[in-house]
Amino acid sequence: MSVPSAVSSTRQVPLLDLHPQNGPLRQEIEAAVARVFDSQRFILGPDHAEFEREMAAHLGIAHAIGCANGSDAILLALMAAGIGPGDEVAVPSFTFFATAGSVSRTGATPVFVDIQPDSFNLDPAALEEAARSHPKLKAVIPVHLFGGSADMDPILDVAARHGWTVIEDAAQSIGATYRGRPCMSLGAMGTLSFFPSKNLGAFGDAGMVVTTDKALADVLSALRVHGSREKYRHEWIGFNSRMDTLQAAILRVKLPHLNGWTEARQRNAARYQQLLAPAGLPISVPQAADWQTYHAWNQFVIRTQRRDELKAFLASQGVGTEIYYPIPLHRQPCYLSLGYAEGALPESERACREVLALPIHSGLLDGDIEYVCDCLVRFFAA
Known about the structure:
Blueprint: H1 19-22, H2 26-39, H3 46-59, E1 63-67, H4 70-80, E2 88-92, H5 98-105, E3 109-113, H6 124-133, E4 137-140, H7 152-162, E5 165-169, E6 177-178, E7 181-182, E8 189-193, E9 207-211, H8 214-223, E10 228-230, E11 233-234, H9 245-254, H10 258-276, E12 300-303, H11 307-316, H12 346-354, E13 355-358, H13 368-381
Parallel strand pairs: 2-3, 2-4, 4-5, 5-8
Antiparallel strand pairs: 1-9, 6-7, 8-9, 10-11, 12-13
Helix pairs in contact: 2-9, 3-9, 4-5, 4-8, 6-7
């Protein structure tokens, strides 16, 4: 089957466009920035405290602790759980590097676990297998990837039987639910990223740890300021990871719009599914699993054995795409010393060969999804 020749296209459908989201809020955001400027309180200022309170209320989780970025959020959660040298932490191999990298930063060792092929999330059966072969495991970080929750009940069951701490990485899944329960409320702690491309994005880096446990919240609040609850008195060895007040002020403006933006993503996902399901194309179209009762659709990721050809063709037609992720974590150069051979985690490796994210952001225009789907049809018809 040959690839159709590129044709001149006047339509551009970027993978992500922040202008439709941020543009209408410009005056409100500028006023929020001016408020911080007038206060001259740029670190842990009033807007930061208010954002923590508002996020906790929005998520339905008692405590929200702002920090510098999503990677630090995972590191803070691991430190609060007492994870350190000699420990092992189970993580999915198919995810962004920060999940495993934060484990390594504590001195612990990541144990890579395979994924379910449909949800892209950590496979509870593979986690059980890892538990039998890794007696030093002390925690597990299920990632709620692409906007949909991992299958948490069996994961929580494995963790409870082995006495592990559960830290939910919800960097891509703010607001998502598992069988009607909020993600990040199921384990000991949950982590968020407000990187600009996220459903709720800052104007730079920012992150957050949430928990239902007051004692953990107190430790987390101290760890982000060098382990100090009282100035110049340090109860723990923490580090500097505070969310800038400017970012908190901007995120406060954007938070009331989050549900509407997520609902737009949900409509876009449904439209893709409506158009692609009956088309008979040799692709796998993502669907929410039955436990993913509120899917945030941070990404809409199809699978095809002709991924690289398709990506190149869509680029020629003005359609932006991305590969999340091209290399599984257990095959990253920095982790080859752990001894995971090629083929050790087959579903993670197969996903890395087949996945392609299509545009799904809330700023898509009328006809954009139809155009993308038409491009897919033309590609596979050639």
